[in-house]
Amino acid sequence: MEHREREGDTAGEPNVRGWEAEPPEVYAIRREGSTWRLTRRDLATAVAVGVAPDVSAPSTQPGCERVWAHKDRVLALAFTPDNRLLVSGGADNTIKLWTLPEGGLLKTLVGHSSSVNCLAVSADGRLLASGSNDKSVRLWSLPEGRSLKTLEGHSGWVNAVAIASSGRLLASGSDDRTVMLWSVPDGQLLKTLEGHEDWVSAVAVSPDARLLCSGSHDQTVKLWSLPQGNLLKTLSEHTGAVSAAAIDARGQLLASGSHDNTVKLFSLLENRLLKTLEEHSSYVLTVAIAVDGLLLASGGADNCVKLWSLPEGKLLGSAAAHANSVKAVAIGLDGRLLASGSADKTIGLWTLPELAIRSCLLDLEASPRETKGVQYRVRSGTGEPVTYTLPCGSPMPPGAVCICNCVPGSYSIPVPPTPTPRPCSCVPVSRPGPCTCVPVSRPGYCTCVPVHYWYPN
Hints:
mainly beta, Methylamine Dehydrogenase, Chain H, 2 domains, 4-stranded antiparallel beta sheet, 2% helix, disordered C terminus
């Protein structure tokens, strides 16, 4: 991790992306060599979206490359219990609230002066905790995103936070090698747990709030009693830094991810190692367990998201849809949606258990505008329409309207009150006039055909 200066101040009014209700203006579109040519391989890739992946190797589904959700690395993700919001934190010092299922940006929270490394949402969905390189933990109200308290006491970066099911106790782990226990109602420091010999990079609290686990770069996972904070056991099975930890909803299974490229499953009833999952080819940086305890998701420096069955630990799917390390994964409460955040600044939403990419979250102010491929327009925060382009095979971002009529594209999100979207593939026409729209097998994904101009409707 590294310190990044804050880029801009977007606090204030909710940053909600609107619909493009007006007809698009007329543009001349030049064909740039083979930029818009859909090869047989590209077509096969685009059609394959949504199909269950081959677990023998990561699938190369159309991903979220350059559809940026943050201006810098995405480091943390968390769903609210009602599955209506996804929260993301990034190295751009911001926290963002995204509406579900459409995935539109609702609000950007500014308050931390450095990277937001970790997030936790309370069991009632009304409280958000965030930890940062600025050495603080901040508490926010949800869904308003109002800043409530700042907890200061760590002397190093805060890498991990967890909120007990009661909502009254918070644990934070830091580069200062400690875990701190805080009283949420008044923000008072209750106890400091010492024992790790290197950075504390992960914390998790059992559902009954009687057990805390902490993972560290000292290659160990420690188990502590709550609320007393007594050290119960040290698990030393990893051979690399422990970067992630999660406890299942029954409080019986612990999953830890490590720089030894593995995920290890531990029985908390017997305090012993059950299984080692070894399919990642580089550091495992993040893990998440579904509420029903049947699925485990992991992400790593191999740019892959992997899905496993529990408790067997069988690999169900693997996808390499990010262009850089997967820093965060989270599973929605209903177990049907997975979010992944990457150092490439993108956030992908995946359907489960298929592990099929559903959409890429987009902040217009963060995403580049020079990418070639499919053009679409959405209304910016100021109300002015902005035109962007995406590579062929990319999922259309929420709120986007495909500029049809011979601009390559494949999906039209309806303008209210139109009841249903109109999936279409834009093809050349011999004279100015309406675009020819034909159904596509995977609506919602960009397809490309050679065109010279886009004629007005």
